[in-house]
UniProtKB/TrEMBL annotation:
One Pfam family per UniProt: FHA
Similarity comment text for this entry: Belongs to the protein kinase superfamily.
Protein EC: 2.7.11.1
One Gene Ontology cellular component: nucleus
Positions with a binding annotation for ATP: 185
Biological process according to GO: mitotic DNA damage checkpoint signaling
Superkingdom as given in the UniProt entry: Eukaryota
All copies of domain FHA, residue ranges: 50-112
GO molecular function term, any single one: protein serine/threonine kinase activity
Descriptive protein name: non-specific serine/threonine protein kinase
Length: 460
């Protein structure tokens, strides 16, 4: 193969040889291939599957000796590469190129590898045998992510919106080389939390905390690539099932409690615990749960304290509301605000509604007055220990996990360990070399940003 690296087609240019003006636009086409070789022509993509190669039949785009020298033609496979598109949930289509050759297909001058499937994005250049042997430039008809910075588009194929919030939005994205699905979170540059979340997530490693792959810093925003959890949120699960059984609630909230204990042991307060920030591996109580959205999280040190009025109202601890009332005074609260929020979530899972709702919600939270029935004495007791107005008496997460309602349920703990192991195995399998069977067919709403979160401007 040595001298093939310098062989070139008869015509080779970094710009397509034909302009769109020369061929009328096909209204039924979802994409177009612009030729990089004078012997090829513009190809409108209407079907979901295309083949390119040197054989005379069963290919849509044929490479002939008019395109390349004989030496190169001898190394072009009968079917050298394929272009396909597949529907991904409700977020539209994703286009792929698969290298089916023996001697190499290149995308943007990078060799793919036989049977590897990469995502095609707008203005990607395709070459064969050698990176210099360009054949086509791919363009998408509906590329709604073209406004994203080049650094983002180079790494990810960005698709539909998963969630929005006061700080930005989350979109479904795919790594262009591995086809791994991700949640791409955009945080506006003017937001005071712009670098807080990636800084905190980069320091964490726990099976019940969402993983951060990387983040990209640009002029207007940062883009955080996060692990995609296809089961949506605990909020959706509660809405779909009205309420959960005690064993089901234990399975999910035991995992959340372990995650928050891990955070507190590292002097990090989450400050926005709620069902919408608990992500699930599938829309079932029997699944792997992970804590997400660390935009309001704060690491406590000798010189930093918790004093910001932030979080979601229905889950706010009384001491945070007290801080708001004493806005002219310096008032500091503790990590136990997460314990209160956890108690609200536990109440909501078991009853199907929040303990503090309606008019004068702040007064109800400040009094800590609620009613719950039809649950076990153990469940009532742990809620009672969490929804205590005096935070000094309130349970921390060491005590939560040692409470008999969790501690004595050996079957639940075994089930949790099995669910985490199963999800890890599935995740590892999905990151193997990409095949048609690996494609995510059903995408659920999986927000890492949700509406209803408040924060003051100082973000302390």
């Amino acid at each position: 193969m040595g001298d093939l690296d310098v062989l070139t087609p008869l015509i080779n240019s970094q710009d397509p040889l034909c302009s769109q003006d020369q061929v009328p636009e096909n209204p039924n086409a979802w994409g177009r291939l612009y030729p990089e070789n004078e012997s090829l022509k513009i190809e409108d993509l209407e079907k979901d599957n295309y083949k390119a190669g040197r054989q005379t039949n069963d290919v849509d785009f044929q490479f002939t000796k008019q395109c390349f020298s004989l030496k190169i033609m001898n190394h072009i496979s009968k079917i050298h590469f394929t272009i396909t598109r597949e529907m991904i949930g409700n977020f539209g289509y994703v286009a792929y190129i698969t290298d089916t050759s023996s001697n190499g297909t290149y995308l943007n001058d990078e060799k793919m590898g036989k049977d590897c499937r990469w995502i095609l994005s707008n203005n990607d250049k395709i070459s064969v045998v050698s990176k210099n042997n360009y054949v086509y430039t791919f363009t998408e008809k509906h590329a709604d992510y073209l406004n994203f910075p080049e650094k983002v588009r180079k790494q990810f194929s960005v698709h539909g919106i998963l969630g929005t919030g006061s700080y930005g939005e989350v979109r479904l994205a795919f790594d262009k080389k591995t086809s791994k699905s991700l949640a791409l979170k955009k945080v506006k540059r003017e937001s005071c939390i712009v670098l807080r979340e990636p800084d905190i997530l980069s320091s964490l490693s726990h099976p019940n905390i969402v993983n951060m792959d990387n983040y990209i810093d640009t002029n207007d925003a940062i883009y955080i690539s996060l692990e995609y959890m296809p089961g949506g949120t605990l909020k959706q699960l509660i809405e779909n099932q009205i309420h959960l059984k005690e064993f089901e609630t234990k399975i999910l909230l035991y995992q959340v409690a372990r995650a928050v204990q891990y955070l507190h042991n590292r002097s990090i307060a989450h400050r926005d615990l709620k069902p919408g920030n608990i992500l699930l591996s599938n829309q079932s109580p029997y699944c792997h749960a992970k804590l997400a959205d660390f935009g309001l999280s704060k690491k406590i040190t000798e010189n930093t304290y918790l004093k910001t009025f932030c979080g979601s109202l229905a889950y706010l601890a009384p001491e945070i509301l007290l801080k708001c009332k004493r806005s002219t005074e310096s008032y500091i609260y503790t990590c136990k605000v997460d314990s209160w929020s956890f108690g609200v979530i536990l109440f909501e899972c078991l009853s199907g509604f929040k303990p503090f709702v309606g008019d004068n919600i702040e007064a109800k939270i400040s009094k800590g007055s609620y009613n719950i029935t039809n649950i076990s004495n153990g469940a009532q007791d742990i809620i009672k220990q969490l929804l205590i107005v005096d935070f000094i008496k309130r349970f921390d997460f060491d005590k939560v996990l040692k409470h008999s309602w969790f501690e004595k349920d050996i079957l639940m703990k075994q089930k949790v360990n099995n669910l985490i192991a199963e999800f890890s195995n599935d995740l590892n399998s999905s990151n193997m070399p990409f095949s048609k069977e690996n494609v995510t067919k059903k995408i659920r709403f999986c927000p890492c940003l949700t509406n209803g979160t408040t924060s003051d401007a100082q973000c302390n």
